[in-house]
Amino acid sequence: MSMLDGYSELLASRLAHAQRLGNMGWAEWNLRTGGIVWSEQVYAIFGRDPAEGPLPLAALAGYVEPDDLAALDELLWTVTQGVESVQAEFRIRRAAGDVRNLRVVLEPLMAPGGPTGVHGVIQDITGRRRAERIMSESRRQLLEARVQAAEERHVMLALREAILPEPAGCLDLPHTRIAVRYVPAEKTASLGGDWFEAAALPDGRALLAIGDVSGHGLPAIAHMAQLRHALIGLTMTGEPPNRLLSRLNDLVLHRLADTTATAVVGHLDAVTRVFTWAQAGNLAPVLVRDGVASRLDPPRGILLGATGDVPYRLAETRLRSGDLVLMFTDGLVERRTRDIDEGLDLVMTAACKLPGRDLDEGLDRLLEDIGGPNPEDDACLLAVGILGTC
């Protein structure tokens, strides 16, 4: 074998390999002699035994799906007129019964008397079209999921607003200014069970409370509503905050299965400025006094729904004119990207700027100072500013 012959065989082998990789082949039809030549890959594309020989142009219609025959007819008519190269896509059904998507490019072979033949490149693009259909279906399902999530979020927001309407501006109680804020998670469609309550009691004191029910979505909102409304009713009994938490704990243990919750409940006497409070697994409130922020020492109390055997203790904090108390749920300080102590430090630093400001505006500024809403969890804030005695 000559060197030229060896090179020709190597080139042919590499060309055949390239055709297999691209799932494409070439064909040539001589319009004058009727001679037809197909490459090996064209036989593979059509699922045809090479022993049966290639197909004439006119016989291609026997393989093409009925809905695509018009595309084939236009392709063949155009190329046999010798006008220009043409291409089209159509589906064929092979002898085995499977359907394949083909892209066919045909080019007329010209001579002085007109076209003498047709040269074609045929590629099987079934895999590509299948991938496109899968991607299209995935995009459709994703769009439907986004629409459904948006609708569910709208329903949950509406329900939450009905259960826990956020007051506009600060709440005015004797000798105090109270501002509250519910902060929904920034990026998630799930709403949590965070809640707050600030209201004047018949005896002149103020009820101040925040809490967080475990979970997300409608179940958490439903449990939050039961817990908050139960607290409002129990408050009318006049019991101290630690006893109120004991009652709420019984409710969670016996009526809210597979649920836990945290809470801080307090009574503020605006005349004596005594803040009597208890907590159930929640972060202790922050006291800002004379420009310095510190966390109050929390009385003993585990989260609601954990056990019924551990009593809740009571704490008393005597406040002064100009003091500010900030209560919040853990969604304010917890982040996946930072330690909780770092979040607490940011909150305490930002809280020092609250006294002397409009509290409602101050809470907005505090959220900005700590990095904005939590991307993954809701939060509630309740700020109480002590004014001078009237």
TrEMBL record:
CDD domains: PAS. Transmembrane segments: none annotated. The keyword Hydrolase applies. Keywords: Hydrolase. Residues 86-137 form the PAC domain. This is SpoIIE family protein phosphatase. It comes from the Bacteria. InterPro entries: Bact_Sigma-Reg (IPR052016), PAC (IPR001610), PAS (IPR000014), PAS-assoc_C (IPR000700), PAS-like_dom_sf (IPR035965), PAS_fold_3 (IPR013655), PPM-type-like_dom_sf (IPR036457), PPM-type_phosphatase-like_dom (IPR001932). SUPFAM superfamilies: PP2C-like, PYP-like sensor domain (PAS domain).
